Amino acid sequence: MTADLLDGKRVASEIRAEVAEKVRQFVRDGGPQPCLTAVLVGEDPASQVYVRNKSRACEKAGIDGRTLRLDAETSQQELLETIQTLNDDPGVHGILVQLPLPVGGNQGKGFDERAILDTVAPLKDVDAFSPVNVGLLMQGRPRFLPCTPHGIVQLLHRCNLSVAGKHVVVVGRSDIVGKPMAMMLAQRDGSCGSEIANATVTLAHSRTADLKSVCKTADCLIAAVGVPEMIRGDMIREGAIVIDVGINRVGDKLVGDVAFDEASKIASAITPVPGGVGPLTIAMLLHNTLLAAKLQIQS
Ligand code: GUN
User: Fold this and answer.
1) How far from chain centre, in Å, is Cα 93?
2) Its pTM surpasses 0.90
3) Model confidence over 101-119: pLDDT tens digits?
4) Residue 40 Cα, ligand 1 centroid: separation in angstroms?
5) Topology of domain 32-121, CATH
6) Most buried of 115, 216, 273, 291 (most Cβ within 10 A)?
7) Selected catalytic residue, list 125, 127, 244, 257
């Protein structure tokens, strides 16, 4: 079998066009131009690229995409005060602190990432990392959905794939992808209705015994571990849907967490890397920024 390719790039551009249209409508109806401010601490090359891409995507959608650059020597206190200033600025609707924060930052002491993310005002928290937004998701009444898992839900929906009643195995328990992904697919009702929800979910991780056998039981396997090509063909059930969240640089190549050539012979549908999940994250960030602007004019 040769798997269908799930074209995240195409779906992302569809969503971006929809958000752009909704932004035009919102502004036509008298709303402010939505504004997203990304806070970039230090000079990590990958983070610089991500932030630049986010800012360009904002401009194309009619969103004011700003970047606040701070050097790695910035102190924890200064960073907290910067976020507080953005929280208090009515012209800023969404705030995003680009991760990872520099390891040797905060004058060599390292940043307390949790304290920083906790400081972002929940109504401006377009990453959905704050405890309030995580809690609302957990209770099945989300405000903002985290961008990467939400992008995956949209991709499944727009490719007419259902996970209701199926066994989904999520590999990786990060706060950004694995945990919220598992929660979203187990809910009764999702952002795209009941078909991209109601799954029986296993959240596997580095201490899972016999990971291969667990993965082999998956109707839908979602890999979010950050280990290049860790999921091999013999870990995939014939006909499974495979979603690869990994973006790993190996030499001058980008590879996913799934060994693509092996997996695509066994799966029924698979996301490529690049061009799969990656582009959806930014599309959903634009969606959240517009939502943030709408919520703030109501509050
Ligand atoms: N770094 C990698 N992914 C993300 C993300 O989704 N949000 C932020 N803020 N930083 C990231």
Assistant:
1) 19
2) yes
3) 999 999 999 999 999 999 9
4) 11
5) Rossmann fold (3.40.50)
6) 273
7) 127
